[in-house]
Design goal:
Length: 407
């Protein structure tokens, strides 16, 4: 076999050595280790960028990100060409941008108030609401234990006087029944997961909550209608008068037995409940309307701007930013306010129910049959009885009745 035959070991070794020699002559010593990226080179006089000094821990092949020498530029160009601090402050503050989507709320990238809303909604409001309702129940229990049921001092007269006609009673019961339904379904929404769910289980709780939500949404309109009716029917009788101060000074004639407190058709205590119910009912109806038809109202923006117009920074009282408010913040404020007012009204109505049933003899008859005992009426609403007697042109027959035994 010839020593120059292709593939022979002598010829292969000679060819490899010749290739290495030619490569070294053509590219220099570095060419034997790494091929140049391009044969086009800048002239020697061209200015080369200065290489910054190495940072501690920096590798030559993976330099660390360095602060850009140009103000506003993002280091390393990894997050874009520039950093607008004011833009990100606006986004963090909940500024709404313009989007092509029909859902304009998607223009809010960060809603910072959401964390505060969640804490207030899930912790603060339920906690203080529970204490308020429990406190009212304990207070009424103490009153009943100390004072007992307020009896008709001179016993029943056996003669009645019409206190509320049927139409007024219907308006009262429309408001009362709808309020009770709204209270129960609303309390289930607020406390149900922690109180009702562990007792009845998830399936029953889901069904109750679903139908309760439907009831809550639609019965709300009945409550609004009843609220308007009782306002129109009784507002003239609930204007404060001088005799109300006397009634308050004497504690309504309830704290000290034998002390008579004068009153017209509604005494001072009933007037307080009336106005708190009307104003609270109006407020809860407005916030409820905003929740039923979300993102269509700006009640809080209008309210706070109204306060500002008369020189009051009411938003600072509640720890709120200055108006106007974004649509999502409006909804959160409506939800929290709705729960607060609802718990206040529930606490108030607990006292109202107690006085109208267990707390006072003869009081329930006013909204039951509409006819109240004459002695009861004279003891609690003597000025109103006198007005009714003048309208009739004669005084009702006085009936002494039997004395009420001491408790």
């Amino acid at each position: 076999m010839s020593m120059f035959q292709w593939g022979s070991r002598p010829f292969g070794a000679f060819a490899l050595a010749l290739t290495m020699i030619v490569s070294t002559l053509a590219w220099g010593p570095a060419g034997a280790q790494e091929q140049a990226p391009s044969s086009v080179r800048p002239p020697a006089s061209a200015e080369q960028p200065a290489t910054p000094p190495s940072l501690p821990g920096e590798r030559p092949d993976r330099p660390l990100l360095r602060e850009s020498p140009v103000e506003g530029q993002v280091p390393g160009n990894t997050l874009g060409g520039s950093s607008d601090a004011e833009l990100w402050r606006d986004i963090r503050a909940g500024r709404q941008g313009t989007v092509a989507s029909p859902d304009q709320l998607s223009g809010v990238l960060i809603q910072s108030e959401g964390q505060t809303w969640r804490e207030v909604h899930m912790q603060t409001v339920p906690l203080y609401g529970a204490w308020a309702m429990l406190g009212m129940i304990v207070l009424l229990a103490l009153v009943f234990a100390i004072i007992g049921r307020v009896r008709i001092e001179h016993g029943r007269a056996g003669v009645t006087i019409t206190r509320f006609p049927m139409l007024q009673r219907a308006g009262h019961w429309l408001t009362a029944v709808s309020f009770i339904i709204l209270a129960l379904t609303g309390l289930n929404i607020l406390y149900g997961r922690g109180v009702v769910l562990p007792v009845i289980g998830p399936e029953a709780f889901s069904a109750i909550t679903l139908w309760g939500k439907y009831l809550h949404n639609y019965v709300a309109f009945a409550f609004m209608a009843g609220l308007i009716f009782i306002f129109v029917a009784w507002v003239a009788h609930n204007i404060p008068r001088w005799v109300d101060l006397v009634w308050l000074a004497k504690g309504g004639g309830i704290i000290v037995k034998g002390v008579h407190a004068p009153a017209y058709k509604f005494n001072a205590g009933q007037k307080i409940i009336f106005w708190l119910t009307i104003l609270g009912g109006l407020s809860i109806s407005l916030s409820g309307w905003a929740l039923l038809f979300p993102f269509t109202t700006e009640f809080f923006t209008a309210t706070m701007e109204g306060f500002q117009a008369i020189g009051l920074n009411a938003h600072e009282w509640f720890g709120l930013p200055p108006p106007p408010y974004t649509p999502i913040l409006e909804q959160q404020l409506n939800q929290v306010w709705h729960a607060i007012v609802a718990l206040f009204l529930v606490t108030l109505i607990i006292a109202h129910i107690y006085i109208g049933t267990v707390g006072m003899e003869g009081a329930f008859e006013a909204m039951g049959s509409g006819e109240v005992d004459l002695n009861w009426a004279r003891e609690h609403h003597d000025h109103w009885v006198a007005d009714e007697e003048r309208k009739l042109g004669k005084a009702a027959e006085p009936v002494a009745g039997r004395p009420q035994p001491a408790e």
